[in-house]
Design goal:
Layout (H helix, E strand, L loop, with lengths): L16 E8 L2 E8 L6 E6 L5 E7 L5 E9 L5 E3 L16 E3 L7 E5 L5 E7 L6 E7 L5 E9 L2 E7 L5 H13 L15 E3 L1 H4 L5 H11 L6 E4 L28 H9 L4 E7 L2 E3 L3 H5 L4 E5 L4 E4 L4 H16 L5 E5 L20 H19 L4 E5 L13 E3 L7 H14 L4 E3 L11 H10 L6 E2 L8 H16 L1 H6 L1 E5 L7 E6 L2 E6 L5 E3 L5 E6 L5 E6 L4 E8 L5 E9 L3 E5 L4 E6 L1
Parallel strand pairs: 13-14, 13-23, 14-15, 15-19, 19-20, 20-21, 21-22, 26-28, 27-29
Antiparallel strand pairs: 1-2, 2-5, 3-4, 4-12, 5-11, 6-8, 7-10, 8-9, 9-12, 10-11, 16-18, 17-18, 24-25, 25-26, 28-33, 29-32, 30-31, 30-33
Amino acid sequence: MTALTWDGSAPPSGRTETSRTVDAGALRLRVTAVGSAEPPEVAVAPHGAPGVFLLRAGCAPGVRLRVEWRLPCTGATAYWTPTTDSRWLPPSWAQPREASLPKGAPVGSLVGPRDAALCTFAVGEAVRPVTIGEGAVEETGAFSWWVEHDGPELRLLLDLSGRHFADTVRAAAAWWAGAQPPRTVPAAAFEPVFCTWYALHLAMTADDVEKLAALAAPLGFRNLIVDDGWQTDERSRSYATTGDWRPAPEGFPDLPGHIARVRALGLNYLLWYAIPFAGVRSAAAGELAEHTLAHLPQLETWVLDPRSPTVRAHQVARLAAAVEEYGADGLKVDFVDTFARPADSASPEADCPTVAEGVHRLLAELDARLRAARPEVLVEHRQGYVGPGLWPYATMVRATDCPHNAAENRVRTADLRLTAGPLAVHADPLTWHPEESPEQIAVLLQSVLFATAQVSVDLAAQSEEQLAALRFWLAVMDEHRDLLQRGGLRPHRPDLGYPVIEARSERALAFGRYAPIPLRVTGDWELLLVANADQDTLVRLDFERPPGTVSLVVRDCLGAVVTEAEVPVDRTELSLDVPTGGLLTLRR
């Protein structure tokens, strides 16, 4: 790696600023105190693995800190960020992104050949906004970064070790975890979920939900999320009635009794809430009119200001009622990222400087209330606000909405796995047309093999074969949960949308195969799983060394055995026919 001297360019500030330059290995960084005539205090030290460095910068309160660095953009194949939306290299003049508790995570990785990280960075700020500029400089061919947030301290982790990018991102998440309070996630958070949203949308009643729950439990589902619609008898896609959070009088006249009946089936019960909203036709909109950030006319709702103690007291009381009054096992907390928007107004009683800090107080107060009532409470959040600041207040995080999109669900869940810390990672609910083939239903499930499956379809309308595919793959995911959901994850080739995903746990190894390419099998293993989600059925394994005699089972998308044999493998290659939607199991 070649050290670069700084060329003087920087994001314009229009303020007094003083800088220092420091080296981290072969990398030169400029650290600036924006708004200060005094230079920042800076220290750089090795951190853990060779090639990893931790920079600490300090300044006086009220001063903003910025760190800038560059690398030659040689061999770069992709740029990874938690936002998932693109893996293409952005230009340096692209709009900077902001990461905070309500939105994103301050981490990124420039990826090179063989998925090696050319440079992975993470900022040690879990709550307040961090501004991040990153991109290729067209004039020089370098890749540039700058990160900036308010002082008095900025901590920056830089990983130049050349390891697989997924390993470096997970290491950054482990670094964040060291500054977080310990969090025990209930085992139930990793168990499959049936969600009402795509199956019913708002047109649901307690009776509808109970019928679906009775069908879901025997298939292997252990959690039920009752989504938008339980709090209103309206059927239009509007948030005009959010904020009061009372059961719909016609659809859910006896919510505690309904929840008790569902729980008796063996399902945990979670209720949906849009925590920032007070809809225009709600009583809450009038009660909290002085404490809003913005009006969203297209959604017919106000966005509340979480810096207001009045707002926090109202929202905590209403959301905690799910557990305290109605007997639910937990909550689906939605739309937290809506807080991270330009504010048109503010509460006169705001008690902290940034909205992100207000969100932090809101979630902390809600968490304390929920845990007092149910220590093993389940709380789901979704992609878009999954950084370390969220970890103490959630048990699972879900991929953002991507209905019918297996490839997007695959990429989003894999990305979440790298940055979710201790939390269970959930797929966006899988849904499909009533005439979908069992094979393709299996492919949908294989696409989220390394996450907790959520499903949302009309179970009563499914054929026996459709249900068989669903039942089989839920059973596979249950049997190998530690390997698939907690094993060390390596999604390969981010530039191609992860055509192969690999997980390893002790002496077990699993692959999700989403394109017709060979699978490289390395290390010691006793169990090898290959889920073939590609239309090409010839699966080729390239072993690091000949595995010897293996016990081989191939199953189709329904779980029926296609091939079963003891096979001596004295070469480093093995090719097998595995049906699309099928599973190959090797043991030795």
